[in-house]
Amino acid sequence: MYRQIFASPVGNLTLPIPQSWYGQEIEVIAFPVNEMLYAANPPALLSDEIAEKRKKCEEMNRRYSMDLSNFKFNRDEANDYE
């Protein structure tokens, strides 16, 4: 595996590869590093936004949730196609 982080001021980028890879098929995946850094270590502002979104999701789930504590799966009933 070969990893290199680039910052290109223009739209085109030249990617050097190791000589041992010449003639082989290679895969190149590109994504902005900033997004990955924020996902791994969100700043306080993003953490607050995430907590707020999580709270909204929990409220929505509580509103539309069902009590399944007495539910028992019946395999015979599930496979009865008639």
Work out the radius of gyration: 25 Å
Largest sheet: none
Oligomer: single chain
What is the helix content?
A: 40-55%
Shape: elongated
Count of DSSP helices?
A: 3
Q: Say how many strands there are.
A: 0
Q: How much strand?
A: under 5%
- The class by helix and strand makeup works out as mainly alpha
User: What is the CA–CA distance across the termini?
Assistant: 55 Å
Unreliable stretches, pLDDT < 50, 5 or more residues? none
Query: Which H/E pattern describes the elements?
Result: HHH
Q: Give the integer mean of the pLDDT values.
A: 79
Give a brief outline of the structure.
The chain has a domain at 29-65.
Features:
40% helix, elongated
Question: What features would you describe in this structure?
Answer:
The protein is elongated. The protein has helices spanning 33-40, 44-64, 75-78. It is mainly α and 82 residues long. The chain has a domain at 29-65. The mean pLDDT is 79.
